[in-house]
């Protein structure tokens, strides 16, 4: 039996993103969407520079491979992550995660339509079950944690849903653009550095504009910096590199589906943070998602 290393890497990315989903809420609420994402991407880019330089991982990248990764960073991280955090700040990590998880079926359809990636009927069923499971897990009743600040809705729900859908599409498109380059064997950390640095430059330019909405809304203290830095290392330096490694040999639809399971993996974390267990519907959704994963792995 061949070890499904690329699929396991995608699940590893989902676990990293689940762990950081609860870490970002305090600094995100304090700094605002744009400043938070800017600080996070700049810090992560510096960490990746150290990893790539110390590991000598840059040598094999050609200019022809750089530009697609730059475009992938603009669409998938600068646009996708910024709008994701805007959604999370309005709907909380549970509902925001549900909308962002729609990048999985979007990526599967785009991979089939644009890259000619074919999936078996069993794999398509697995993708559907994973997406349905995520939907059940995070869109169902919040259970006893419904009064926690993570469940609060701020501002227009319609606007938040629109932002979440655009974020999901941007993430799917970013993965689609990166897939042919990663298939050539580009080092995942070097590819992450290109994508994250691109997003950091774009966000720095945006925050520098004389627009109050994009300026930091509060001060960054040591505790919030630790949360921001930790989330950047886990989500971007490790999680994003795992995703790009998965794209080296995995199909976009399957990789995106498995990496979109973070809202399911976040359930135990919500239980720990809020002190109350998620609803039975959420656990049912997790079980459905696990069934979908099983179909994908056993295809």
Describe this structure in words.
The protein has about 300 residues and is mostly helical. The protein has one domain (about 5-295). The chain is built from twelve helices and no strands. Helix 1 (about 5-20) runs antiparallel to helix 9, helix 4 packs across helix 6 and helix 6 (about 120-140) runs parallel beside helix 10. The chain starts with a helix and ends with a helix. The model has no long low-confidence stretch (mean pLDDT about 85).
Give the topology.
Blueprint: H1 5-21, H2 25-31, H3 33-55, H4 63-100, H5 103-114, H6 121-139, H7 157-182, H8 188-207, H9 222-249, H10 252-259, H11 262-274, H12 280-297
The SSE order reads HHHHHHHHHHHH
- Kindly report how far apart the N and C termini lie: 12 Å
Helix count, DSSP H or I runs of 4 or more residues: 12
Share in helix? over 70%
Shape: globular
Low-pLDDT ranges: none
Overall average residue pLDDT: 84
The helix-and-strand class reads mainly alpha
User: What's the gyration radius in Å?
Assistant: 18 Å
As for the number of domains, it is: 1
**β-strand amount:** under 5%
The main sheet comes to: none
Per DSSP E runs of 2 or more residues, the count of β-strands stands at 0
């Amino acid at each position: 039996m061949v070890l499904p290393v690329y699929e396991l890497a995608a699940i590893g990315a989902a676990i990293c993103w689940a762990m950081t989903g609860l870490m970002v809420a305090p600094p995100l609420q304090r700094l605002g969407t744009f400043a938070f994402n800017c600080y996070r991407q700049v810090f992560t880019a510096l960490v990746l520079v150290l990893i790539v330089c110390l590991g000598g991982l840059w040598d094999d990248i050609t200019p022809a491979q750089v530009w697609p990764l730059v475009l992938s960073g603009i669409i998938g991280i600068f646009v996708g992550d910024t709008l994701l955090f805007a959604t999370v700040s309005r709907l909380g990590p549970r509902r925001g995660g549900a909308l962002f998880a729609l990048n999985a079926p979007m990526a599967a359809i785009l991979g089939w339509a644009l890259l000619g990636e074919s999936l078996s009927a069993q794999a398509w069923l697995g993708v559907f079950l994973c997406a349905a499971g995520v939907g059940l897990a995070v869109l169902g009743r919040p259970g006893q944690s419904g009064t926690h600040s993570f469940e609060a809705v701020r501002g227009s729900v319609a606007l938040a849903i629109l932002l979440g859908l655009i974020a999901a599409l941007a993430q799917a498109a970013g993965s689609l653009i990166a897939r042919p380059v990663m298939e050539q064997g580009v080092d995942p950390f070097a590819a992450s550095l290109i994508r994250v640095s691109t997003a950091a430059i774009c966000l720095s330019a945006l925050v520098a504009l004389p627009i109050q909405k994009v300026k930091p809304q509060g001060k960054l203290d040591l505790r919030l910096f630790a949360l921001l830095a930790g989330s950047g290392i886990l989500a971007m330096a490790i999680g994003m590199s795992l995703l790009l490694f998965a794209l080296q040999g995995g199909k976009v639809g399957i990789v995106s589906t498995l990496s979109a399971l973070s809202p399911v993996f976040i359930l135990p974390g919500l239980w720990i943070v809020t002190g109350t267990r998620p609803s039975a519907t959420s656990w049912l959704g997790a079980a459905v998602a696990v069934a979908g994963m099983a179909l994908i792995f056993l295809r």
